[in-house]
Amino acid sequence: QVQLVESGGGLVQPGGSLRLSCTASGGAFSTYSMGWFRQAPGKDRDFVAAIHWNGYNTYYANSVRNRFTIARDNAKNTVYLQMNNLGFEDTAVYYCAATKLSEGLRGLNAYDSWGQGTQVTVSS
């Protein structure tokens, strides 16, 4: 399994932006599809976005489509989540995940490596 470390979380005002990063080690990063999930207090962990190992196919939750962008840099073993126009509902711990699969990337169970999470708080 690959080891994942997220960074870039923090406190931001409504309408602001953040970019999360997730750096992988211990595996061939370019062969992993990557996902971002989030979990708000008292709620389930939900799918946010995913990118196929090929770097071309991307998937988004309806709630973040047109606001968030997932991208990867295989040379840096890193996947990014650019988050724009953040709202209170985006407050959560954001988790990065990795899988060798190329389908079913919206599901939690597709992933077998997870990061420790990074907190994103949207507050005025």
Explain briefly what this protein structure is.
Helices cover about 0% and strands about 50% of the residues.
Explain the overall architecture.
- With 124 residues, the protein is mostly beta strands.
- Helices cover 0% and strands 48% of the residues.
- The chain is built from no helices and 11 strands.
- The chain has strands spanning 3-7, 10-12, 18-25, 33-39, 45-51, 58-60, 68-73, 78-83, 92-99, 113-114, 118-122.
- It is globular.
- The termini are far apart.
- The mean pLDDT is 97.
Gyration radius, to the nearest Å?
A: 13 Å
Principal-axis shape: globular
Which stretches are low in confidence, meaning pLDDT under 50 for 5 or more residues running? none
Structural class: mainly beta
Beta-strand segment tally: 11
The SSE order reads EEEEEEEEEEE
SS field, number of helical segments: 0
Give the oligomeric state.
Answer: single chain
Helix and strand layout, with pairings?
Blueprint (H helix, E strand, L loop, with lengths): L2 E5 L2 E3 L5 E8 L7 E7 L5 E7 L6 E3 L7 E6 L4 E6 L8 E8 L13 E2 L3 E5 L2
Parallel strand pairs: 2-11
Antiparallel strand pairs: 1-3, 3-8, 4-5, 4-9, 5-6, 7-8, 9-10, 9-11
List keywords for this structure.
124 residues; 4-stranded antiparallel sheet; 0% helix
